[in-house]
UniProtKB/TrEMBL annotation:
<keyword id="KW-0675">Receptor</keyword>
<keyword id="KW-0472">Membrane</keyword>
<keyword id="KW-0552">Olfaction</keyword>
<feature type="transmembrane region" description="Helical">
    <location>
        <begin position="127"/>
        <end position="153"/>
    </location>
</feature>
<dbReference type="GO" id="GO:0004984">
    <property type="term" value="F:olfactory receptor activity"/>
</dbReference>
<dbReference type="GO" id="GO:0005549">
    <property type="term" value="F:odorant binding"/>
</dbReference>
<keyword id="KW-0812">Transmembrane</keyword>
<feature type="transmembrane region" description="Helical">
    <location>
        <begin position="188"/>
        <end position="216"/>
    </location>
</feature>
<keyword id="KW-0807">Transducer</keyword>
<protein>
    <recommendedName>
        <fullName>Odorant receptor</fullName>
    </recommendedName>
</protein>
<feature type="transmembrane region" description="Helical">
    <location>
        <begin position="69"/>
        <end position="94"/>
    </location>
</feature>
<feature type="transmembrane region" description="Helical">
    <location>
        <begin position="41"/>
        <end position="63"/>
    </location>
</feature>
<dbReference type="GO" id="GO:0005886">
    <property type="term" value="C:plasma membrane"/>
</dbReference>
<keyword id="KW-0716">Sensory transduction</keyword>
<dbReference type="GO" id="GO:0007165">
    <property type="term" value="P:signal transduction"/>
</dbReference>
<dbReference type="InterPro" id="IPR004117">
    <property type="entry name" value="7tm6_olfct_rcpt"/>
</dbReference>
<keyword id="KW-1133">Transmembrane helix</keyword>
Length: 393
């Protein structure tokens, strides 16, 4: 693979492209061959099938072990996670045209300026997105490794056979319709569930981190507007700018600001159903894993498993709330930067009115919402966590 320059859009989105490419949900190039498109759709079908190979048996396991709260909490954690991923993949496949349009718009925004110094204003935040994507993938992968290793250790030390993401001592015969506790059926089921888990972590990382990256890239464009505004203010203070150039630069900022606002609206249009489902099920998931962690009758190995799962799910929720907080902060600062960094009081009235309109619009900050009633921010994260802990107490 050709090495990408660290100033290109593809460099910063490469981890997202790899994760989503495994699932076949990364936007297809218009010039791709028919074979490539068919192969992409086949990957989507394989991913959905692999996840259903875990999702359907887990539902059957809940039906069989309905009266055992210890088993239900363990199964419920896995079932909720797999259900989240399935919903996100199917939803994005159904709205793939809208997702592709948004991706192309974000890609074009990367070339909003040719000045290397101005590009640094959003390259830094793009680097954060890339780093967090890689770190989160490693975190979720460690979670899968820990679940798998604990199942192997339990079999070697206690001669107790159970699949990586199944609760110990739960009935695995009924959910698969046959007795898989004997070799080689158990090894085949073990390997198949492990492959499904690999697909699952690619889906979790691919979908969640890609939208985190999109939100951060949009927030970076607000930083670019602030860079332009500071540059205009410095030129005015040095009296090295003519009104014609000032008007051109000002209108460039206004047009770009309006464009970013429309992009945020497109993101909300695409993401609000996913975000609503994410916030709803994350609370359930945290409650289930928290209960399993505090269960005095659980084995030490199970407590450690659910602790790692709890941490991973909390980090996943943070992946949505943290970029939303940055987006709100960066969009709000546009008005402050104009007011304090541009000597608007020395400008003709017509330009003062233009600046006033931008300040007023910036006070209505841009945000990502879950069905228009819950703004994604750090406050949302603490609110969900507080409700979960109050429920457990």
């Amino acid at each position: 693979m050709k090495e990408l320059p660290n100033t290109s859009f593809d460099y910063y989105t490469l981890p997202n492209k790899i994760s989503c490419g495994i699932l076949g949900i990364w936007p297809i190039d218009e010039g791709s061959s028919t074979f490539s498109k068919i192969f992409t759709y086949c990957r989507v079908i394989v991913a959905i099938t692999a996840l259903n190979s875990v999702f359907v048996p887990e539902i059957m396991a809940i039906a069989v072990n309905w009266g055992d709260i210890q088993i239900l909490t363990g199964i419920g954690c896995v079932l909720t996670s797999v259900g989240q991923v399935l919903y996100k993949i199917i939803y994005l496949v159904a709205r793939r045209e809208k997702a592709h349009e948004l991706y192309n718009e974000i890609r074009s925004l990367w070339d909003a300026t040719d000045d290397p110094n101005e590009k640094k204003s959003y390259q830094q935040i793009a680097y954060w997105a890339r780093t967090v994507t890689i770190t989160f993938y490693a975190c979720v992968l460690c979670n899968v490794i820990f679940f798998t290793t604990s199942a192997i250790i339990d079999y070697l030390c206690n001669d107790n056979r159970h699949l990586p993401f199944d609760q110990r001592y739960s009935n695995i015969t009924v959910r698969y319709g046959t007795d898989i506790s004997a070799s080689p059926k158990f090894e085949i089921a073990f390997f198949c569930q492990l492959l499904a888990c690999i697909v699952g972590i690619s889906a979790i990382t691919g979908v969640d981190c890609t939208f985190m990256t999109i939100i951060l890239h949009v927030a970076g464009q607000f930083k670019l507007i602030k860079t332009w505004i500071n540059k205009i203010g410095n030129e005015i203070n040095r009296e090295s700018v003519h009104l014609d150039k000032f008007e051109m630069d000002l209108f460039k900022c206004i047009r770009h600001h309006q464009r970013i606002i429309h992009v945020v609206d497109d993101i909300n249009n695409l993401l609000t159903p996913i975000l609503f489902m994410q916030l709803l099920t994350s609370g359930i998931e945290i409650c289930l894993s928290g209960y399993a962690m505090l269960d005095n009758g659980a084995a030490v190995i199970d407590i450690m498993k659910f602790t790692t799962h709890f941490i991973s799910m909390a980090v996943e929720l943070l992946l949505w709330c943290w970029p939303g907080e940055i987006l709100v902060h960066e969009s709000e600062e546009i008005g402050q930067v104009i007011y304090f960094n541009i000597p608007w009081y020395n400008l003709p009235p017509i330009y003062r009115r233009h600046l006033c309109f931008v300040i007023v619009r910036a006070q209505q900050y841009c945000s990502i919402t879950a069905l228009t009633f819950k703004v994604l921010s750090i406050h949302t994260l603490t609110s969900v966590s507080t409700h979960c802990f109050n429920f457990e107490n």
